[in-house]
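Exercise 7.
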Amino acid sequence: MTVPLRAALYLRVSTARQAEHDVSIPDQKRQGEAWCVSRGCELVETFVEPGATATNDRRPEFQRMIEAGTSKPAPFDVVIVHSFSRFFRDAFDMEFYVRKLAKNGVKLVSITQEMGDDPMHVMMRQIMALFDEYQSKENAKHVLRAMNENARQGFWNGALPPIGYRIVAAEQRGSKTKKKLEIDPLHADTVRLIYRLFLEGDGVKGPMGVKAITCYLNERRIFTRDGGRWGLASIHQILTRTTYIGEHRFNTRSHKDREKKPESEVAVMVCPSLIDRENFDAVQARLKARDPRMTPARVTSGPTLLTGICFCAKCGGAMTMRTGKGSAGGTYRYYTCSTKARQGKTGCEGRSIPMDRLDQLVASHLEDRLLRPERLETILASVLDRRQERTERRREHLAELHKRIAETDQRLNRLFDAIESGVADLDAPGLKERIAGLKAIREQASADAERAQAALDHAGNQAVNPDMVRTFARAARQRIRLDSGGYRRDHLRALAQRVEVADTEVRIMGSKSELLRTLVAASGGKPGVAGVQSSVLKWRARHDSNVWPPPPEGGALSS
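Solution. The predicted structure, written as tokens, is:
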């Protein structure tokens, strides 16, 4: 009596959409079962893989099948697939698993590409696998190109949008509905709050770090979009994601190994912005300054006043401290172009300048030119105007949230009235879910309204007046210098974030937003804020207004 071969069916489709619409799996199953009947095989198990790529082995059912096929004794003698491409689309990996099964006496059979066991048929199967791999890579290339173009046209390619956004239908192209991102009013304020906490704090203490923001949100039960708790990675991702300034980056990493792709392959999708670019750039500069991989600890805590913010105007290289022996035998210190120090004049003809002299020039200029009430008012005028615009937008948003709360309450009351009057049955399908959904919308809108009101109150407490400017200017001039003749490094770096040394001038640059935050924090009596670094170069609006020495007195700075 002949014992029938025991067979296992492996069925696979590439996408979840194909699996949902029953495009391929039922047909594969029908043909596989018919093949078993015609060959007299006993079908003992079926492995179904809905929506999984065959370019790798990260497939649960595939791994379960391989585990069963390599166990001793194996529960089946052959694995039946519709075509070899259902099994694998990588020639090397396919051959690896075919041989792994064969070592345990299990054979791979394709019902549409039947092969023998002789060397010629083995070679034909390997050639088919190479063609399947090539076709898979070509298809992936064309799909990616289409998705990149879709993103460049401003359309969303799928997946879950970043928190603060939601997906909406934009237009219809044939049978396809093109979708775009729009701001989600229920969660947008959470994103704005995270940026405000990082840059300004909560009005009680100064700017917060990523960990402090995480604790702040979790302690106040401000949950993530799915109701979970915040983690460090999610906060850092929000603070660094360009989507929030209206530039969503698509195709940034390789799908296979998650390696970063070159900028030339990244597609930028335009979307509504949640955060001002100036604030976003200030956040990136501060994160970079705190990153020990970018800014060594000695740069932020060392004794040298301008290390880390002083650069050569010719080559852009850092000006670093060097020491030398004077004619009288003493040691003197000076700033010199690091490129010139490493490579000589062939690298850069940049210059050197005595450290004491440059420190004195920078501190004196900030005292005499920047820290004057009338100068500060002029510099900060545009920033204050933008703050006023943001305040108006917050008021409009708060009004919209209150309107949403009122509308939701009205809808809930109508439902309750209908239930009480007997028009609607509480046990009706979907009614309880609808009530729960409306309550969730109302609770979220109420929480967002509270945060929006707190932001408005915080902005009101930060109003800048002439007395604050004068007090700040007077205190800052005093605090820059120490009684011993040195300088307060943290105070100076809150006012200036970049110093460029040229042959005939020293250019001092800084951030208007950073200056305003320092002023507000100092006026509120919050120490330590001034020590935060930034490299956003904005307050030097005119090239002749913050240059030392001023013409025509300025000659070449001698070393």
